[in-house]
Amino acid sequence: MSLKVAIQGIPGSFHHQVALLEFGENCEIIPFSTFEPVAKAVAEEVADVAVMAIENSIAGAILPNYDLIDRYELHIWDEFYLPISHQLMALPGQEIQALTEVRSHPMALLQCKQFLGQFPKLAQKDDIDTATVAKRIQDEKLSGTAAIASKIAADIYGLEILAEDIQTVKNNFTRFIILRKSPKRSEEANKASLKITIKNESGGLAKLLTMLADFGLNLSKIQSIPVMEKPWEYSFFIDAVFENREQYKSAMEQVKSDFGDLKIFGEYKSRKP
Ligand SMILES: O=C(O)C(=O)C[C@]1(C(=O)O)C=C[C@@H](O)C=C1
């Protein structure tokens, strides 16, 4: 039986590309148009695994996805960094000047903000995912509308590329995480994703960070997320890289005893390029 992989997006989307690269051409892709049903599908065992974008090197974090992992009690099994190159594309034979709107996933539009700034008359519209826009332009023969999507999407849906590599910096990556319902047991892990809710007292965060550094944890990411039930209080989502597993374990014990709540989303191998 093939692995069921939940993603947001259709063939040609970046999620689809990651799913095939990670799980091979024979996996069964279960596509959704937003992130919440992706998380739900794994929580309810409709899918075995989910691929979910979590942050981009130009546009930053996709904050609502942190909440989904937390709320649906999912576990991070792995990470995947995909180089992202965006192309402006439209029905064949059109000039950029003839376009009136450009549609894409909001994260993709953000990554191309500088390029789009040159075309103030081009209305920017958020859409489901990069490839869905490319497909719709072809299916409905939408002249005047452009998509921002991958070269693969242009090939699949028969669109012409009008401008290549339009993301603000050429070296652009999106970090995806691989989620499952059950926790992963791995002895080779050197990275952990944590949620720490510290007591609201002066210097609390500074003390936490110093303690983690003392145990040899290198924080590759720290993101504050509001605690919804307690206005103006925050939890911290932390990605920490470590060399010594015992020291990491000791640090986690100390977090629990001295700082507050700890939730470990996953321990896995760092894939940072
Ligand atoms: O729209 C797509 O193709 C996606 O896979 C979504 C997504 C995202 O969620 O950030 C994935 C990678 C890129 O950063 C742009 C968009």
From TrEMBL:
One GO MF annotation is:
prephenate dehydratase activity
- Its EC top class is lyase
Please name the pathway. Amino-acid biosynthesis; L-phenylalanine biosynthesis; phenylpyruvate from prephenate: step 1/1
Does this UniProt record's set of keywords contain Cell membrane? no
UniProt xrefs under PANTHER family: PREPHENATE DEHYDRATASE P PROTEIN, PREPHENATE DEHYDRATASE-RELATED
Q: In its UniProt entry, what is this protein called?
A: prephenate dehydratase
Species lineage? Bacteria, Pseudomonadati, Bacteroidota, Cytophagia, Cytophagales
**Which SUPFAM superfamilies does this UniProt record tie to the protein?**
ACT-like, Periplasmic binding protein-like II
Recorded hits in Gene3D superfamilies, A to Z, give: 3.30.70.260, Periplasmic binding protein-like II (3.40.190.10)
From which source organism is this entry?
Algoriphagus hitonicola
Q: Tell me the domain of life.
A: Bacteria
Q: Which UniProt keywords apply?
A: Amino-acid biosynthesis, Aromatic amino acid biosynthesis, Lyase, Phenylalanine biosynthesis
